[in-house]
Amino acid sequence: MSSEATDPRPRSGSPGRVPKPPVGGGKLGTADVASDRTHPALRLLNVGYANFVLVSRIVAVVSPQSAPMKRLREEAGARGKLVDATQGRRTRSILVTDSDHVVLSALNPETIVARLGTGAAFDGGP
Asked: How many domains does the chain have?
């Protein structure tokens, strides 16, 4: 009996490799947070305009209007830790990460919190 007749591996492509399905159903921009099939530490959050941040690294989502947040933004720029994900639009929220990076987003803080899946904890208060 030949080894070809008993070999269960496919003949085309890489032997024994099965392609993984793309995250988010395969369509770019369709998922706000990466699929639950991924490891929790690797979940990505869409912060607008096809820009993503690791959910596990986010420490705070804040509004940019206050003077302390404006200082935070300026200091992060001076340190080289400012990431502008607004695509030229108005900054509506600031995300602070555990690595001291500051991410600017054109989405409202409420939208980002809802995308994180903790929207039920948001009470809309000051």
From this structure: 1
Residue 49 included in any domain:
yes
Kindly report, residue by residue over 85-98, the tens digit of the pLDDT: 999 999 999 999 99
Residue 99 lies in a domain: yes
Alpha carbon 30 to its chain centroid, in Å, reads 13
pLDDT of residue 39: 73
Residue 32's nearest CA partner among 13, 14, 51 is 51
Is there a domain that residue 16 lies in? Answer: no
Contacts for 103-106 with beta carbons within 8 Å, 24 or more apart?
103/47, 103/53, 104/64, 104/73, 105/47, 105/48, 105/51, 106/48, 106/49
| Residue 6 phi, psi dihedral angles, 5° rounding | -105, 0
Cα of first residue to Cα of last residue in the chain, in angstroms, is: 77
